UniProtKB/TrEMBL annotation:
InterPro entries: AAA+_ATPase, ABC_transporter-like_ATP-bd, ABC_transporter-like_CS, ABC_transporter_ATP-binding, P-loop_NTPase. One of its GO terms (molecular function) is ATP binding. PROSITE patterns: ABC_TRANSPORTER_1, ABC_TRANSPORTER_2. This is ABC transporter domain-containing protein. CDD domains: ABC_DR_subfamily_A. Keywords: ATP-binding, Nucleotide-binding, Transport. Residues 17-242 form the ABC transporter domain. The lineage of its organism: Bacteria, Bacillati, Chloroflexota, Ktedonobacteria, Thermogemmatisporales. SUPFAM superfamilies: P-loop containing nucleoside triphosphate hydrolases. It comes from the Bacteria. The keyword Kinase does not apply.
């Protein structure tokens, strides 16, 4: 692993993406509320948030598809709404609302997209990355949902981008395709590309992104590693096999904050697992197949967004 730059150098290095006190209105609806963030070259960043949190708006601003209502957005130090700035940055984007042309073959479409760029990947390499060699002569309207997603990914890579935006990229993919796709993203990041990812599948984030930014109601509520964000969710989960008739007895124990059932397994949320285990022992409650774990990223995410909604 390479040693990171000295703090003094990092402080003055130009980020590839900068949002400074950005707000965005759609009529009377405020989608972003004073959002500030910077993304450095080579970072892998996951942008998370519930529906309506502002993720798509933030990405559209970074891509220069929208202008902020107030504040500033910079791409490599320039205005991303200027085509020359976007070309110089070498962007690639796979967006949720993207569509492909019907009545055109897969290879033909990739050839056309490659022709738009000064730097491009060979068509055969794009077909290999997207696992679409056997579909290269098929018309796009005959592709399955997962195959269309893989084609959109290949189109996003056509210009050999240095900054890659992926908005819910694995939607519609089967398990095997998703696994290959995620491995490809890791390889692209190891190659030094900047990756900005949005997803509802939080399990994907932990294996892909160094940094997680959580948006809720147009504000950033967390910006850290997935490990650090998991640590913000107070409490531990203690689970073991237990009959359902013990649930009432478990609920009476002071250290139990919440009880969940997962078939024959009971899951208890507590702030002090050691004290809870002592209480269970005093009550004569057996704990076969005992497991103790911290909060998952999904549980921390839910805790963060709930906390914001309650303030």
């Amino acid at each position: 692993m390479e040693v990171s730059a000295e703090p003094a150098v990092t402080q003055f290095r130009q980020p590839v993406i900068l949002l400074d006190q950005v707000t965005k209105y759609y009529g009377n609806v405020q989608a972003l509320r004073g959002v500030s963030l910077r993304i450095e070259a080579g970072e892998s960043v996951a942008l998370l948030g519930p529906n309506g949190a502002g993720k798509t708006t933030a990405i559209s601003l970074m891509l220069g598809l929208l202008r902020p209502s107030t504040g500033h957005v910079l791409l490599n130090g320039g205005d991303p709404t200027i085509p020359a700035v976007r070309r110089a940055a070498r962007l690639g984007a796979m967006l949720q609302n993207a569509r492909v042309i019907d009545l055109v073959r897969v290879r033909e479409l990739l050839d056309v997209f490659r022709s738009y760029y000064d730097h491009s990947l060979p068509t055969d390499e794009l077909l290999e990355i997207a696992q679409l060699h056997d579909k290269q002569h098929s018309y796009t309207q005959h592709l399955s949902g997962g195959e269309l997603q893989r084609l959109l990914f290949a189109l996003a890579l056509a210009g050999d981008p240095r900054i890659l935006f992926l908005d819910e990229p694995t939607a519609g993919m089967d398990v095997a395709s998703r696994r290959r796709f995620l491995q490809c993203i890791r390889e692209l990041h190891r190659d030094g590309r900047t990756i900005i990812l949005t997803t509802h599948n939080l399990a994907e984030v932990e294996g892909l992104s160094q940094r997680v930014i959580v948006l809720n109601e147009g504000r950033i509520v967390a910006d850290d590693s997935s490990e650090a964000i998991r640590a913000t969710a107070s409490g531990q989960f203690v689970s073991f096999l237990a009959e359902e008739q013990t649930d009432q007895l478990l609920a009476a124990i002071p250290g139990v904050l919440r009880i969940e059932r997962q078939g024959p397994r009971v899951v208890l949320l507590t702030r002090d697992s050691d004290a809870l285990l002592k209480d269970l022992q005093r009550q004569g409650i057996a704990t076969p197949h005992l497991e103790i774990r911290g909060a998952s990223l999904e549980e921390a995410f839910l805790a963060l967004t709930r906390k914001e909604e309650q303030t």
